[in-house]
Amino acid sequence: xxxxxxxxxxxxxxxxxxTAAMIANDAFWDGSNHERHGRNTYLYxxxxxxxxxxxxxxxxxxxxTIEPLTQAAAQEMFEGLRIQExxxxxxxxxxKADQLRHPxxxxxxxxxxxxx
Length: 116
Description:
five-stranded antiparallel β-sheet; single chain
């Protein structure tokens, strides 16, 4: 599965994979395909510095989605994705790589982003 061309306006912000920079993903080549059990995640940063993920699927009955992320959630996702297209400092120029975070920040940040 290769990255898809997706765009969506969520909470008044436009998220577009064609204008954002992909900074990480989990689509690795296993010798025959790029799929990860029929699903892949791609992490992007917009020109304005907002982060979002696309979740792509090949499963019938599921749809590709865009998920806006807080910076903390994007950083944690970046660290967990297998393929990092850029280094941490380039992906998050205003963050400190040695900044302490608590386990579970990603899930807490997702809940906060969903409320906003």
